[in-house]
Every structure is written in C-alpha cells, then in structure tokens.
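## retry 2 of 3
previous attempt timed out at serialization; input unchanged, resubmitting
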Amino acid sequence: MNRVFLFALALGLAVCGSAQAVTYSVVHDFCGKRHCTDGAQPWSPPVTDGADNWFGTTPLGGDNNDGTIYQMSLAGGHKSFTRLYSFCSKKNCADGRDPQAGLIIDSSGNLYGTTKAGGSGDDGVVFELVKGAGTWTYKVLYKFCSQANCADGATPYDVTLGYPGMSGGSAYNGIVPLYGTTSAGGAANLGVVFALTPGGGNWTEQVIHDFCQDASCSDGKAPLYGVVVDGAGNVFGGTGQGGKHSSGVLFEMTQGGGSWTYGVLHNFCAETSCADGNNPVGPLLTDIDLNVYGVTDDGGSQGFGVVFKLVPNGAKSKLFVLHDFCVDGGNCVDGAHPRGGLVQDSIGLIYGVAGFGGDMNVGTVWRLSGAKHTVFTRLVSFGDASTPGGSPQGGLFIVNPNGPFYGTASFGGANNNGVLFKLKK
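## retry succeeded, writing output
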C-alpha cells in the first residue's frame, strides 16, 4: 500500500479530540515548483547551523524525482528557500538517490547524510555537502556494497548518522567516526552496524556488527534506522525484526581493547499481547543519566505503539512503557503509530510525533512530562485548516533547549506534498 493511498485513506477517518496547545505555522509548502523540483514528501526533520538556516532532505522531487537537499533561511524574519542539490545528477545515480533520513552538520557548516539507494549498485551512499564561499560541493564519501557479496553492508534505509555529542546538541567535529546501520548486506545479508572514519582525505568503513549471527537471528535483523552514541561512547540502536520473539530488539555496543562487544538489552513482545511494544522505529534518544528513550510502531495494549524508557544494564536492563497510544476507547485522539526520533528540552520534557491518529487521523505532535515522563499532552493534531500537513514521519528538531521546534509532515499542505513547519511554545 503506497504512502499516497494511506494519506488519502486517513483523510476519510476523522475523529474528535482536544485543542491545540502550541502555535503552529507552515514555513514551506513542498512541490511549489513545476514537477516538484524543490522537493516533495519530506521524511525527516531539518537541522540548523545556529544562524537560522535550516537544512533537510526530501526523498522525492528534484530534477529526476530522486530527492533533494534544501536550505530554508529565516534570518531577519525573511524566508528564503533554496534547493542545494538534486540527486541522481550523475550517470546511473552514482551520487545516490532517495535520501530518506535527516542530515547532520559539522562545526564548519558542512552537511552529511545517507541515501538508501543509488551509488555503485543502487545500494546507497554516505555523502557530504561541503560549504564554500556562496557555493556547495557534493561529495560521495562511501558507496555501499563496495565489497564482495556486500560484506560492507547495503541499503541504509532511514539512517541519520550518529556521533558522540549529538544527543547533547554538539556539532560533528569532523574527526571522530560516524556510525550507522544498513538493512541489508553483511555476512547474512540482513544488515550491519558500521563506523565510517575520516583520515588523510579519505573515509574508511568498518563493519562493527553483522546481524543475524545465529539461525534464529536472536541479535535482531534488518535495522531500518540509525544509532545514537551516548556520553560514554556506547552505541545504541534497534531492529524491528528478529530477537527472541521476532518483534525486534534494542541493542548496545561497547568498545574496549580495539574491539566491539554487541549485546541485546531488550527483546520486544516479551509481555502478554506485546504490551511492551512491537517493532521499534526511528533513532533513539539518550539523556544525561544514560537512559534510552524511543517508540514502537505497534504493540501496547491497543496495538498502536508505545513510548518507552530503557535503563541499560546489560542482560538486567529494564524497559518501562511511558505512554500507550490509542487508550481513549479507539478514537486515537492522542495519536497512533508513533514515528521518528524523540527530542528533549532544557527541563527534561520529551517530544515526538505520531504518523496517524488525532482529529483527522493524519498524525499528532505530543509531549511527555512529569517526574517519570508519564504525563501525556497532545500539542498538535494535523490536517485541519489551522494545521495543514499530515503523516509526520521524522520527529522534531529543537533549536535550543527551550524551543521553538521544527519538523516536517510528508503529505498535506498547499500542494499535498508535505510541509516544513514550526512549533512555538
């Protein structure tokens, strides 16, 4: 079932719910140019350089309908949208295509990201967009499936690159490795965790874990999203498949003595009717206490997903459900099927999005507060005249610890091809 059909279906399933709790505004309507050359159906939130310039990707649109990189400048109260790159500009899409994930930015303002396709064998690339004096130069840093049998991995599906300090809002320093996953390739062709390290003008890729190490894939398989690196240098991620109950896992990787150790911290669907969740989606969030937060697409008491907190402790790790979606008798005014990564503000409140549910069943923005992050508040319900847009997939980006927030919705808006939006408390 394609995404356009899902959105059209959702528009016909209106339900009632609560009022808005923040100020919502559309910053840009995508597909405003003929043939959507400015980009279409954004899947991830933008990132900022701190000077009110915002950078993001779209998986569709552009000159060849294979995606774009864009810049939205808001400095001085003036809006200016610029397409910085159109993918599949090289023969056979050697430069990559379909950039579904978000970007990261380094201390010099250069941008880094992944595409899930294109490259040498249509298996995806890692790229850099280098900032110059009024110009941008696109470089492919690594092409997946460069090794025999794709031993180096293939198809980074929705992988925003991770690095130490990222959760705290620090820019990438251009020196330490970048971490991510692929959903295919590796020893079992079921994905890898990789580290990409710069040096001498080149980048070296190292596979630090091959998924499905045993016949039952107890370590998980086919990860679709990136990883997060905590303040101690530990790498956390999830898979939506594999594990003890075939419903996905949360994992941790620790480094010592020049090698990496992989461990499963939680097997989803460990409780009756998958009350703990099923199929974790999006990148994870770590806090200053090294706790891990995330969402699942399914599971929970109603089967519409949960928000969880994991206290890592190896085999003794504990997972707590913070919110169970659609517990209002079936209307799902709080949201359904949460998506993307979570963000945390200066006082510890956690924010996220749901791809469905809300008054028009095309998604919500929500907040968790309270001492244990169990007080749920719906902030936005997408799809009506005051909140154009629908089906948010990529979470939010917070400008500074006190907001405002920026995000994208994949559909809706003036051209029904998604919007870039702003939330102000």
